[in-house]
Amino acid sequence: MSDAPLLKLRGLEQVFDTKKGPVAAVGGVDLEVKAGKVLCLVGESGCGKTTTARAAAGITRPTAGAVEFRGKSLTEMGAAEKTAYRRAVQYIHQDPYAALNPTRTVASTLTAGLKRHGLVKSRTEARAKAAELLQLVNLTPPESYLDSYPHQLSGGQRQRVNVARSLAMNPELLICDESTSMLDVSIRVSLLNTLGRLRDDLDVAFLFITHDLAVAKYFAWDGEIAVMYLGKVVEHGPTPEVIGNPQHPYTKALIGAVCEPDPDLAKANQSAEQLRSAEIPSLTALPAGCAFHPRCPAFEPGLCDAAEPGLDRTGANGNGAAGGRRVACHIVARDQRRDAVRSAADGRDDRTLTLDAVPGSRRPASTGATEDPHKSPGAAWSA
Amino acid sequence: MTALDAAIAKPRKQFGETFFGRLWIGLTRSPAGFAGTVLVLAIVLFSFVGPLLVNQDNPTDTTQIWTSPSAEHWLGTQYEGKDTFTILVNSGAQPIWVGTLAALMATFVAVALGSIAGYFRGRIDAVLLQLTDVTVTIPQFLLMLAVVAFFEDIPPWGISIVVGSTMWAFLFRSIRAQVMSLKEREFVEAARLQNLGAARIVFREILPNMAGFIFVNFVISVNQAIYAIVGLYVLGLMPSGTPNWGLMIHQSWGQNFYLNPVALPFVVAPLIMIVLFTIGLVTMGRGLDQALNPRLRER
Amino acid sequence: MTDPILSVRDLAIAYRTGRKESVTAVSGVDLDLYEGQSLALVGESGCGKTTLGLGLLRLLPGLGEITSGSLTYRLKDGRRADLLTMKKEQLRRFRWNEAAMVFQGAMNAFNPVIRIVDHFADTLRDHSDGRKWSKAAVEARAGELLETVRLDPDRVLQSYPHELSGGMKQRALIALAIALDPQVLVLDEPTTALDLLTQRSIVQQLHELRKKFGFTMVFITHDLGLAAELADRVATMYAGRIIETGSARDIFYEPKHPYTAGLINAVMPVKGARPALESIPGYPPSLKAMPDGCAFNPRCAFATAECGQDRVPLELLTDRPLAMHHSVACLHHDQVRLQRKENANV
């Protein structure tokens, strides 16, 4: 496990002024992306995931908190450092149609950054490099794409050109904002496979934004998922654990709501637990306490609507291992405390809710998620 | 790496992919646009090449005053006995080149200032906007009259400057608005995120997307400028040296030629030229709009 | 077995692209829909599924036209009627009374300056046969319909569309579609652009409505999960043709067309282990340049020279009752296996 994070969001807040008053699109997000790793932000529209990504990419300036790249806050960077950051962190837009200039050829789009930053010496070299980039994103043979205009390409091909453009800068981190959501199923898989190969071969880290849990699971299997709701992270942990054994009621609801491409499973799923309300509260009038409580099936009056739950590590008092699971839910926290008391009383370890270990204690051998979360830090220091 | 080597050899652009290629396709595709272009080209040829072909020796001939059209004088003769057709052929060049120059200057200034204001916003934008507010509130034609009256013997290029300076403000505003909206587009954001630099972003990412818009506005400006220039001549505010459509109308009007039936060709010919040129420019502009507007062209 | 409620035979739909040119978006479609069934038309963008869906009600936009084939409905009174020979007035009565459409994009399907209640008034008055709808009658009926889709009439009726959330709009749209008790409901991408939890509640709603009213449903979707959830039968479309049709279990567990299998292989599941998924190589053909023979053959792993020659017709694979058949348009369907099934067992 690498030590220093590549990108760190520290208490990130983004408040927009609107006619109805200030709206906190993002209300205090702490996340890290490590070199060569994937962090997936999932959530429904309006949860603040795109706002978070845009702040991380330096497109917008957060109203509070900081975006740190290699340990240095963006606001404290000098011009040279800022340029280095700009090259190292690349952003890929959602809409492959809007993100390419309709009047420029693929070659012109790809070589602009190369020439600007002196990465190539001549036109010929720039063109050769552009061809190389197209091969990297599986647009082969490159010569049949180099002189195409965007309108001559399909959505999947355009998105590949966008990825190639970002690769021209030799990035260390790609921020993908719903970059596959406008593509058809089969095209989406092949683009995700390509991105996965880039991560493995070029050691590029990803901050991957999506509303689609299946995409998050597929792409971030070896990484982490953070689930956002109304501007806050409500659950965060290694992907197989969050998807396989969700803890927060909102995550559970999301996973339960997915339509699986399996008719038998779908029939079994029809009795899934209903939310108390289908309406998402407005960001201008957030509910008191836990923002999810008006919809939460596990809601307990007096507990959930009183104070805002912190994003706590499950199983420990907040000082668990880095990369462990964090959940912002009063009910989960309370059950945890009870279990801890009980297991302390019984002198044995029978926690079923938690996957992560209390420092010094042994990792539970078998839990709900049987898939091996082999990147789990718990294993690193199990006795 | 053979595939890469092959890729390096850049093929020539297809004609249809270049700006002028698209221009040509757009102008010839729709029948109306094509007709407009033909009309404009015909009048331009008539006015610029025509003078080289007709006999420029057109003496005053008191025996030939106000004759009807004949094989010798296609449009008859005028009050000095000169050939009306020869005068008409010589009359188009000045309004056209002066108008085009005025429109060029206005478009250039509007594009330059409009993209600066729209892209950088801030104080420079506020100042420029104030300036256009002032410019727009002054009655354009009165301003022209005042300037022309003040500088007697104003040269043709001076007229271009005067006319152009009254036209740039409107164009500036629409260019600025376009730049502001294009600036928010994702491909511009992508370019900004790659630190491509303001100059490249404005000139290579934003402006090419407005090429059609700018060109169409230029064509319309030419039309307006010609109207303004002809108007100044009609009012008799300009030196009466070079033959000119406006001068012809001025004479017809000022000396009551329009009451004389035999003078009809002399009175009507410049009017027809102006009307045809206007119709040509407008239909050509509409055809261009369809050809160059990315929204209409793509998908 | 009774007659199908809707029979489509050799339907072709083209869009005019110029004065004399047109492209064929849908061709050679044969389809039978039996009472109470729900059919999913699945496929990727540009495969013609929306065009076909709109064609089923003759709701094609200005440049589209049905160029051949027949569309026969069994009406409520038991008569059979060919939609293609109907006059304008007959068609107006047919729509909403016999078959209704829920258009794609709940966000834009309502006129933004008209209150919800007036949308109901317009629909009820326009499509009712002779019946006069008073203001009170409209409000009563609309209120009843909104309650059916779990919306509060007091809050919704007098609202303008922009005052409702996406999910509420979609519900109101469904209520509007069933206002005159149609037998057939065509839904175009009913959950696209909605949030996950809202999608789930709409799916639940459609289940309930089907149970309650028993209407026949056709829904158009690119989301195979939705098809698995809502459909009894699935028809896969590729390049303007139906290439496979069968029960949901046939399609999801034993697809026989390489394209269907490829699609199902490309869908990412949320539950269970993470499979390594494969995409279908290449891109769908342009409508202007269709490959000869089977349109899928340039991308197909099983393709032989024969595939590129003649159009491959749908072949009946089962001897079940016609309402439940499994048919496929592939010469090599016996070689097609769902890879994921095998992988999953490893």
From TrEMBL, chain A:
Region of interest (Disordered), residue spans: 340-383
Keyword Chloroplast: no
Chain intervals with Basic and acidic residues compositional bias: 340-353
Keyword Lipid metabolism found: no
Domain ABC transporter, chain residue ranges per copy: 7-255
GO molecular function, one term: ATP binding
Keywords assigned by UniProt, alphabetized: ATP-binding, Nucleotide-binding, Transport
SMART domains reported for this sequence: AAA (SM00382)
Protein name, UniProt field: ABC transporter ATP-binding protein
Species of origin: Glycomyces endophyticus
Automatic annotation (TrEMBL), chain B:
Location, primary (coarse class): membrane
Topological relation to the membrane, as annotated: Multi-pass membrane protein
Stretches that traverse the bilayer: 32-54, 96-120, 127-151, 157-175, 210-238, 258-282
Record InterPro entries: BP-dependent_transpt_permease, MetI-like, MetI-like_sf
Key words, A-Z: Cell membrane, Membrane, Transmembrane, Transmembrane helix, Transport
Compartments, record wording: Cell membrane
Gene3D superfamilies: MetI-like (1.10.3720.10)
Domain ABC transmembrane type-1 residues, every copy: 96-285
Family: Belongs to the binding-protein-dependent transport system permease family.
Name of the protein in its database record: ABC transporter permease
Organism, scientific name: Glycomyces endophyticus
Organism ancestry: Bacteria, Bacillati, Actinomycetota, Actinomycetes, Glycomycetales
TrEMBL record, chain C:
Domain ABC transporter intervals: 8-264
Pfam families according to UniProt: ABC_tran (PF00005), oligo_HPY (PF08352)
Example of a GO MF term: ATP binding
Swiss-Prot/TrEMBL keywords: ATP-binding, Cell membrane, Membrane, Nucleotide-binding, Transport
Superkingdom in the source lineage: Bacteria
Subcellular location, record wording: Cell membrane
InterPro entries registered for this protein in UniProt: AAA+_ATPase, ABC_Ni/Peptide_Import, ABC_transporter-like_ATP-bd, ABC_transporter-like_CS, Oligopep_ABC_C, P-loop_NTPase
Record's bilayer topology term: Peripheral membrane protein
UniProt family annotation: Belongs to the ABC transporter superfamily.
Name recorded for this polypeptide: ABC transporter ATP-binding protein
